[in-house]
């Protein structure tokens, strides 16, 4: 009787309100993207007449996407964005993972000061350091270098530095919550520090590493500010730089602009859809540790 009454218990008013708020919030978040998709398949004249109608019948067209591929070098821009974001993610994971492991498991002189400096570095926005970083890299000769790969390096280095503090803090907190007995057992079996990190820490802390990787990749991919400073040569332009130029050049060609936005956002959506479980798992496990 008790189990039956629990099953038939009415939904509380507070739960209904929470669900209503979440539904409204999700609609306000999703609808703008749906609006962009609809207008990317419509002729510009129909967008100006009514941008909320569905792209059916004579309104439907693929010309906007065809124009986007003809007028802009989107393939090269995709390649540059992926090269930068993947390189930044790999370097951040390696450097932050090793640093977090050392901070979580080793005691050494100046450790507290180093931890404080890592946290303090997150308070300085990229705007505050961009000029000295630009001057330093310009003296090195990697800004607007004739070699496109070297020019991309001028963006990779500041982005790696900008993501390291966040990554170290997240990974250190997760590694501290892992049972140290696993590492002690591996050490007794003859594993060295590198083997302990690669065979014990990396597999066990995979959700946290995945979370840091995804956030680092997306931040690097969408970082227009740094790319505007360091990438000025046509062959080095990224997808976000290309979108910025389209916005200023396309004028009132809204169909072309919407199609370009869709082409820019597609890789981000694919990455998030494929790895969303790792994002949620990494954040929730880190929240309940300890």
TrEMBL record:
InterPro entries: MetI-like, MetI-like_sf. It is a multi-pass membrane protein. Pfam families: BPD_transp_1. Residues 78-275 form the ABC transmembrane type-1 domain. It is found in: Cell membrane. Belongs to the binding-protein-dependent transport system permease family. PANTHER family: ABC TRANSPORTER PERMEASE PROTEIN MG189-RELATED-RELATED (PTHR43744), SN-GLYCEROL-3-PHOSPHATE TRANSPORT SYSTEM PERMEASE PROTEIN UGPE (PTHR43744:SF8). This is L-arabinose transport system permease protein AraQ. It comes from Caproiciproducens galactitolivorans.
């Amino acid at each position: 009787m008790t189990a039956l009454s629990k099953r038939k218990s009415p939904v509380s008013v507070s739960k209904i309100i929470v669900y209503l708020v979440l539904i409204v919030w999700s609609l306000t978040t999703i609808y703008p993207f749906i609006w962009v998709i609809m207008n990317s398949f419509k002729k510009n004249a129909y967008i100006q007449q009514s941008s909320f109608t569905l792209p059916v019948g004579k309104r439907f067209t693929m010309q906007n996407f065809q124009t986007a591929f003809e007028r802009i070098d989107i393939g090269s821009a995709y390649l540059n964005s992926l090269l930068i974001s993947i390189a930044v993610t790999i370097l951040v994971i390696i450097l932050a993972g090793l640093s977090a492991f050392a901070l979580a498991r080793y005691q050494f002189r100046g450790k507290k000061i180093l931890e404080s400096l890592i946290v303090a570095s997150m308070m300085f926005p990229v705007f505050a350091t961009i000029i000295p970083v630009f001057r330093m890299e310009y003296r090195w000769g990697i800004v607007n270098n004739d070699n496109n790969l070297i020019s991309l390096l001028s963006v990779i280095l500041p982005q790696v530095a900008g993501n390291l503090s966040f990554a170290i803090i997240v990974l250190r907190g997760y590694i501290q919550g892992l049972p140290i007995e696993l590492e002690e057992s591996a050490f007794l079996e003859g594993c060295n520090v590198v083997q302990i990190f690669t065979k014990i820490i990396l597999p066990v802390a995979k959700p946290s590493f995945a979370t840091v990787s995804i956030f680092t990749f997306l931040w690097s991919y969408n970082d227009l500010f740094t790319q505007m400073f360091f990438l000025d040569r046509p062959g080095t332009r990224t997808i976000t730089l290309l979108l910025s130029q389209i916005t200023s050049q396309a004028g009132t060609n809204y169909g072309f602009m919407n199609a370009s936005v869709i082409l820019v956002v597609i890789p981000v959506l694919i990455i998030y859809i494929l790895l969303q479980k790792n994002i949620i798992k990494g954040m929730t496990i880190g929240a309940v540790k300890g």
